[in-house]
Amino acid sequence: MDKERIIQEFVPGKQVTLAHLIAHPGAELAKKIGVPESGAIGIMTLTPGETAMIAGDLAMKAADVHIGFLDRFSGALVIYGSVGAVEEGASADHRRIRPLIKLYLVRINEKLIESDHEAYCDCRRRRCRKNHVI
């Protein structure tokens, strides 16, 4: 039986590729994610991966949130707390990280869409004039 092998690669760059807030998650979802039941869960993926450490620090200093998971190699960050606190923590990351290390940021709950050779944020599909090319 052949073993399946997964290789994960990041395009070199500095960006927040995912920022999502889950308000009022159910007990089962919180358990599966590995955090205690709370008002909200915030999920972020950042490149380079070490940026997740900075984002976690900024979120905790800006609001009453807790870190549920942080991986400096993959850039994954999960924070949890009340809805307002998680939203404030994630927003603080966006406001403070950009000038700090010049990241390209997607807005919270904004998706990236890949086209032939470029990736665009979802707002391009909604005829946004920003045309964020990544």
**What are the low-pLDDT stretches, counting only 5+ consecutive residues below 50?**
110-120, 124-129
Element-by-element helix/strand order: EHEHEEHEEE
Quote the distance from N terminus to C terminus: 39 Å
Overall spatial form:
flat
Could you tell me the radius of gyration in angstroms?
16 Å
What's the total count of β strands? 7
Largest β-sheet summary: 5 strands, mixed
Average of per-residue pLDDT values: 77
Give helix % range.
25-40%
From the 3D structure, determine the CATH topology. Answer: Alpha-Beta Plaits
Q: Give the name of the CATH superfamily.
A: BMC (bacterial microcompartment) domain
How many discrete structural domains? Answer: 1
Q: So, CATH architecture? A: 2-Layer Sandwich
Give, in spatial order, the strands making up the sheet with the most strands.
3-4-2-1-5
Describe the structure in brief.
By secondary structure, this protein is of the alpha+beta class. It contains three helices and seven strands, in the order βαβαββαβββ. The protein has one domain (15-124): Alpha-Beta Plaits.
